[in-house]
Predict the 3D structure of the following.
Amino acid sequence: MSPVTDDKRSCFSIVVTLAAGLDFSELEETAAAAPQRKVRADGLTAKEAKQSKRFRAAKKAMPPRLEAQEPAAAIDLMKSSASAKFDESAEVHIRLNIDPKYNDQQLRATVALPKGTGKTIRVAVLCSGDNVAAAKAAGADFAGDDDLVEEIAGGMMDFDLLIATPDMMPKVAKLGRQLGPKGLMPNPKAGTVTTDVATTVGEFKGGKVEFRADKQGIVHVPFGKLSFSSGDLLENLLSVVGAIEANRPTGAKGVYWRTMYIASSMGPSVQVDVPQARDQVVAQA
């Protein structure tokens, strides 16, 4: 046997001997003596330190974040925790078991909130002929053909929603640079490409909203204002739940719903019991 091999065996023997003689209580003491995270003088975590005193106080009055609430109770908790000096929006954030990078797992649709959004929506309509007058009569803030296209191309973006008739889509395509970054490009899935401009304008003015799943499979939808009654907010919330259920992507397999939280614009979130919310939607159908 070569001297090199003998040396390796000798070293291995020494290591095994040392390992066998280890006192594991010493290892436990070493682990216990590991450096601890620095604690702020006020006892707050780094995340809590970035939150306002108002928010932290509201959060303390809420049940544990992972404790799901019945929909009506969750709405009452959300309303009671609001303390901002303006009329906050009510928002729902729903995590679904989908992966939007696959076409058959993408979710984009609309829902008509029966009690409205509580917001004034500015609507522009790209159309021609008699549709221009029909759109304005239905409440559109802007309506036109080539003249409106030129205004938008020149930087006029004083609207929250853009509706277009199918024959105007080639002209809309030229506005991609202006509309794309703001998410204002008309889309058939969002109900903003239509031949019936009067009805569509009326629906969006009356509370119809678009929703879509983001890259993480989470849907964010405003469903009213905190000045709404609890009953009105509940009705809007269940409409959102029903619309997401009705537009389930074909590629969504197994468990579709994961979690649902509601929150005011400036308040802490409350988890909503998903099975109970879905049961209430079924009961109303």
Q: What stands out?
A: Residues 123-205 form a domain with the Rossmann fold fold (CATH 3.40.50.790). The mean pLDDT is 85. The longest helix spans residues 3-20.
